[in-house]
User: Fold this.
Amino acid sequence: MSSESNIERDHVPTVPLTTLPEQHPAVFAESFNTGSPDALARVYEADAVFVPRPGVRTTGAALEAANADFLALGLPISVRTRHTYTVDDIALLIVDWVIDGPGPDGKRLRMEGTATDVARRGPDGLWRYLIDNPFGTARPPVEAGGAG
Assistant:
């Protein structure tokens, strides 16, 4: 095996993080669209929370596994930052997003939502997600037999 193929295989795509909070969702999308879990992990704080579906909170390895499920769809994400509200080193981001294309079974898959996210500026001046809540204010599904 040539060293070139090892370099290519071991190369993790990197996307530069941003010093502007309103650009962080675009950095997230670019990182997501590399398909690399390692590239995507860079846009999060070490103690970040990810909400992969309404009412479910993940951190650490569970956050990475939940994101891997989205990456496994093999579809790009597009984002549009609707609002950014910043106080000091914290930003609230309201972001419209869409994942659309042929799913693993060949049938069209479309997921979309409006995220309610919180980002924090680190000591290096770069923004990362502290809370990534892609489904925003969507309610968790009602359990069978539960109040409706």
